Amino acid sequence: MPYERIVILTGAGISAESGIPTFRDKGGLWSKYDLEEVATPEGFSRQPDLVHEFYNARRKDLLRVKPNAAHYALARLEREYPGEVLLVTQNVDDLHERAGSRRLLHMHGELLKIRCEACQGVFPERGAVSTKTPCPGCGVVGRLRPHVVWFGEMPFHLEEIYQALGRCDLFLAIGTSGTVYPAAGFVEIARRAGAWCVELNLEPSAVTELFHEHHFGPASEVVPAYVERLLKKARSC
Ligand code: OAD
Description:
This protein is of the alpha/beta class. The protein has 2 domains: 1-17 and 66-108 and 155-237, Rossmann fold; 21-64 and 110-148, SIR2/SIRT2 'Small Domain' (2-Layer Sandwich), CATH 3.30.1600.10. Helices cover 36% and strands 19% of the residues. A 6-stranded parallel β-sheet has the order 3-2-1-7-8-9, sandwiched between helices. The longest helix is centred in the last third of the chain and has 18 residues, at 219-236. The site of 2'-O-acetyl adenosine-5-diphosphoribose (OAD) has 25 residues, from α1. The site of 2'-O-acetyl adenosine-5-diphosphoribose has 25 residues, from α1.
């Protein structure tokens, strides 16, 4: 087997061809919306209904799209690779799950979940939420928020992620600009642990020089091709 433990980090680029806009590309979400308004705790305290509307619209859009060949290739890798495969995503969509990935950590939360700030319960949500929606758990009104990580908040699962990065021997970063920390720093940790680091992206990311190997192109092409080669190598070992 070429590698014993693989950690894969994905970003918005992997879902772009499914029809979900990225954040920082031309026409990306942060060119249309003010990040301070819709993706910070302060923005939510100031205008909770506006923030709910933003996430309601994104939830609605998500339910209309499907996983693409890159999501399916990573699910196949998890199923068929003889070693450990951990997928860490910055994406709040559920396209990895729908494609069949199971060992998956959503470090920036999940769009199809809401959280109650009164009881701290996390609940599935596929529809629209407002400041008038009661918590499905405790019934308190006006304390629900999207279960996503905003700027200035701590990402989820960091302990488990750092542990996996410290033990991995192959690290893949797919469709991420390498501009948002801590995720942008994962390559450095994996590299220090001795892992071979591979970037699969449309173009060089902000941390591209830290990777040993690069495959530039649309995720729906470069990811299935890379997975195919890795599985072939594993079979021939
Ligand atoms: P970005 O929008 O910053 O970057 C998307 C990356 O995907 C860019 O490097 C593009 O070149 C690449 N890309 C675009 N289309 C692609 C395609 N078809 N195939 C392969 N690559 C493609 O998105 P992220 O790096 O995911 O955080 O952003 C990180 C975080 O910033 C997000 O999780 C979000 C955002 O603000 C929070 O909301 C906390």
